[in-house]
Amino acid sequence: MPWQFKDQIAELINKYKANVDFLAIRVERSHGADIFLRSGKVETLSTGMSMGGQVRVCHLGGWGFASFNNLQNLESKIQEAIAAAKWVGNEKTILAEVAPVQAQIRLADVPQVELIAKKNLCAQYTEILRSVSPQVVSTAVRYGDCTQQIIFANSEGTLIEQEWADWELRCAATARSGDMVQTGRETFGSRRAYEDLLNLDNHVIGAAQRAVKALNLPTVQGGTYTVVIDPILAGLFVHEAFGHLSEADMLYENPDMLETMSIGRKFGSKELQIFDGAAPADHRGSYAYDDEGVPATTTQLIADGVLVGRLHSRETAGKLGEKVTGNARCLDYHYPPIVRMTNTWIERGKTPVADLFDDIPLGVYAKNWQGGMTNGEMFTFTAGEAWMIRDGKVAEPVKDVTLSGNVFETLKDIEAIGNDFFWDESGGCGKGGQSGLAVGCASPSLRIKNAIVGGEYDT
Asked: Most exposed among 44, 53, 173, 340, judged by the fewest C-beta atoms under 10 Å?
């Protein structure tokens, strides 16, 4: 348990804090399981435990970082980090002020589940995927869980003991007919309990059914449409296309992007409200304190269509003269904390979902997500399933629907926001070499005009 090292950590911070502007030590112990079945064959079946830590030092604006997995090396790693900070520091250290915190956040006992039970769950979902059709030629089921116990202390007097647990399950089925191949996917996650991954048969079978069904669907005719997207695809959009642009470490050293993301800029209608925060409980991106010891908050990013906030570490908040938001996160002790989203969502609107389709002579209805990518303010996402909209009604299903565009133009083109709302706990976010960080996304359904839909084009 890392808690037993509190006194040693406190003594070393007191010994070295006068040598630098800021010193923080984070020690963690984690254990978890990793299981992967490909077409029913076990490729990974393992449990693991690790213990290690990191030292972060700031002096004259320069940062030093060192990680370790042997606590006997802690003092030497402090010395290494101090030396590194002094080599590169030549300015002024600017960190937003945060009141020192003394806190303990302990989990209730997490019931122990045998590895064989987890493997059997993966096998059960594999058989469900395979049972849909002989056209399902391959399946993939991956399970992972992790429980992490952390102690964080810094030279300002903060001492936090914190722990969390996380579970994730990913299922995919690939169907083939001749040269035609289609894949369906479902991902599930929880910060509450292993039991949240049980009894998902109907969702899992849906992934295989979509793959098989898509083999015989027409490809959407590419063009510009009014589209309606469901909460899951809309949640991915707000996270990937907008959320990353709200992370202040992407902005404060990029004057052009900082001007683009200037506070007070209008991005959408008065109905548009976007938030991020770890304070809402029991979501994948929820916690009590971030990895700089800053209390979790809820930050409004867009209010009434206007940019009013962004996400910060202590350094970015200090350099931009803004309030800290509790968004400095690291994947584990090997990495320094950087500015990351937590739970990101668009607030529920007032339009009944059925009314989102009204007066659309020809459009596209897209649900779920298959994949996607972003490049700055440009995005491309692939829907998990889609239908044409004809004369205000959902019509025939189509496949290979990709949505692309400029995030700022797309936000302006949101015509209506549904009165539904759904949390997607399947997210694992990547940034700065730290992939798989748990996040939550949520949104109502959205109606967007002038959306670029990729598919087949006339030649």
From this structure: 44
